[in-house]
Design brief:
The protein is α+β, with helices and mostly antiparallel strands. Among the domains are: 71-200, 2-Layer Sandwich (Beta-Lactamase); 352-579, Phosphatase 2c, domain 1 (4-Layer Sandwich). The protein has 15 helices and 23 strands. Strands 1, 2, 3, 4, 5, 6 and 7 form a seven-stranded antiparallel sheet that branches. It has a six-stranded antiparallel sheet with strand order 13-14-23-22-19-20. A five-stranded antiparallel sheet has the order 9-8-12-11-10, sandwiched between helices.
Length: 580
């Protein structure tokens, strides 16, 4: 009797059990479903960012390989420029580079027959087994002045990588040639110095990268020829369209067409062994494109594991709720008090974070006006911005920390303090990014990173100096046109500790308007999950002629809220508008 009486429920407890069964459990199931979907979206974004970092690292490896192999040609060109009539002095230098670099197949010096030296002259050094051989490549058997690796450089007067070709009469292999123009001190064209990469060597390099990163990788020329592919039936034999037909993929055909036009993109492709996400990237220095397939089952493996864990947790929690309902009823008041305390702490955290943002979001001076705002997606966020006026220069910056919530806000505050310290030392955008990157790489152990843009405007010279670290390119509105001057891409800070950032400069027209923003603006989604995009930002700016900074900012935010009507804000929103 004592055992039964110990577990006998009173009326209040019976009502609690009833509400748990009738109301709480269904609500709990719905809540778990919503949490799973929300976490799934966030994890997908995180995995996509990680995939983009892998792709950037792969692209950097390929670019470093090509740059390393061809860099000696510039020095050889300068050696001839200094003493054109002693051009033969560079031959030991060319042979030395072939001996030292296994990736380099050959190198030639070709002189312009109608140039100042007035010589038809082309001497070629190339690798043959374990020795370096040389030969003459002279017309009419080898009419080098008419070949594209020579004529294109002569016409453009710029170094260039050639389209793949079989070097009949020369190296007798499939290769691509990097040709560097040679000029005399009067800027007259003398000829070219070349660096040849055998395509088999380049293909093997790329496929080694593929194995290291568990990726499926291919490289195509400007006309779609497969310079590297793991399938030997297609490697250096077919073009990408033939491979797309082989696997019956219309999506890959679309991606191949975009690659021919120098476009980068992300595509979902069905291969024989499963679904893949294809990332394509254009290599500007060669006009080639690289494609990287990441298998969805590997890329989204953490997401699938999360779903399994959530289902197991849901079942366990349902059982636990029924067992612990009596204890929960006794602890209800305590839980309410704890939740109120947590809310107060979040509110305090938000107030502390706001103190790190500028106290004045609107500034109007004689020679400039500025308007900025940061709207967090949660109680605290990872976006930030700031500005300083120093020595007749306006310094502004916008940042976006990966992730959200308290960890992102802490990382944000650390980033902002490092920026302010670096600016005190030297108000130079590239210097500031270099220092912030090193410091954050030293202290960050969580894999978090931040995108940044830092600009310094000389208010007297109307000159903008800026540097970008993985951040969405800012826009400039002036003389009736809207454009982004950003031409260099660099990764976010706290990704590569040894990354060095570069400055870019641009002259500003009178009444120019600069608009910087975080990816929460361009990636805001409507009900159909379509991104707001930079095109709509540019359209709003075009429609804002004659408006003040604050009015432009308010117009942009209003348009975003109308576009995402009914949708929860999924990311922090930051906008900074400067008018000179």
């Amino acid at each position: 009797m004592s055992f039964r009486s110990h577990f006998k429920m009173n009326n209040i407890q019976r009502k609690i059990v009833f509400y748990v069964i009738v109301i709480t459990i269904p609500l709990f199931l719905v809540t778990l479903y919503v949490v799973q979907e929300r976490v799934s979206r966030e994890l997908k974004k995180s995995e996509s960012r990680q995939a983009r970092l892998i792709n950037m690292n792969t692209l950097k490896n390929v670019q470093d390989f090509l740059n390393k192999t061809s860099s000696f040609t510039a020095k050889a060109s300068y050696m001839i420029t200094a003493s054109p009539h002693h051009y033969e002095r560079i031959f030991p230098f060319l042979k030395q580079n072939i001996q030292q670099d296994p990736a380099l197949f050959g190198s030639a010096l070709a002189l312009e027959p109608s140039g100042p030296l007035k010589k038809t002259y082309c001497k070629y050094f190339y690798r043959a087994h374990d020795s370096i051989k040389e030969k003459w490549l002279m017309p009419p058997e080898y009419d080098y002045p008419t070949l594209s690796w020579y004529s294109v450089v002569k016409d453009s007067r710029k170094p260039v990588w050639s389209e793949p070709y079989f070097d009949k009469g020369g190296g007798e292999v499939y290769m691509s040639t990097y040709s560097y123009p040679v000029f005399d001190l009067h800027n007259r064209f003398l000829g070219v110095v070349t660096a040849d990469v055998e395509l088999n060597t380049l293909s093997q390099k790329i496929q080694r990268l593929s194995k290291e990163n568990n990726e499926f990788m291919f490289l195509v020329s400007q006309n779609g020829f497969l310079l590297s592919h793991p399938n030997q039936d297609f490697n250096l034999r077919q073009n990408i369209f033939k491979y797309a037909e082989f696997i019956h993929s219309q999506t890959l055909k679309k991606a191949a067409a975009d690659m021919e036009h120098g476009k980068s993109g992300v595509y979902r492709v069905q291969l024989p062994d499963g679904k893949y996400t294809l990332y394509t990237m254009y290599i500007e220095q060669t006009a080639w494109s690289i494609g990287i397939f990441l298998k969805d089952s590997v890329l989204f493996q953490p997401l699938n594991q999360l779903r399994t864990y959530l289902i197991l947790i849901m079942i366990a929690d349902l059982i636990l709720i029924l067992i612990m309902v009596l204890l929960i009823s006794n602890q209800l008041k305590k839980k309410v008090a704890e939740e109120a305390s947590v809310k107060n702490e979040f509110a305090m955290a938000r107030r502390i974070q706001q103190q790190f943002l500028p106290k004045k979001g609107e500034v109007e001076e004689k020679n400039f006006t500025l308007s900025g705002v940061m709207l967090p997606a949660r109680e605290v966020g990872g976006d930030f911005y700031g500005y300083e006026i120093r020595n007749k220069k306006l310094i502004f910056y916008v940042g976006d920390v990966s992730g959200k919530g308290v960890p992102a806000s802490l990382f944000m505050m650390a980033s902002q303090m490092l920026i302010k310290d670096a600016l005190e030392e030297k108000p130079d955008p590239a210097y500031v990014l270099d220092k912030v990157n090193r410091k954050l790489s030293e202290i960050s152990t969580t894999g978090m990173f931040a995108t940044l843009i830092i600009g310094v405007i000389d208010l007297e010279k109307r000159e903008l100096v800026y540097s970008v670290a993985g951040h969405p390119p800012f826009m400039i509105c002036g003389l009736g046109a809207v454009y982004s001057p950003v031409t260099q891409f660099a990764p976010p800070v706290a990704v590569f500790a040894d990354q060095l950032y570069q400055n870019e400069r641009i002259e500003l027209d009178k009444d120019s308007i600069i608009v910087a923003f975080s990816d929460g603006v361009s990636e805001a989604e409507n009900k159909q999950k379509v991104l707001y995009g930079t095109g709509r930002i540019a359209q709003v700016l075009q429609e804002s002629a004659g408006l003040k900074c604050q009015e432009i900012k308010d117009k942009l935010l209003k348009d975003i809220h109308q576009y995402t009507a009914g949708q929860e804000q999924s990311d922090d929103l930051t906008v900074v508008v400067v008018q000179i």
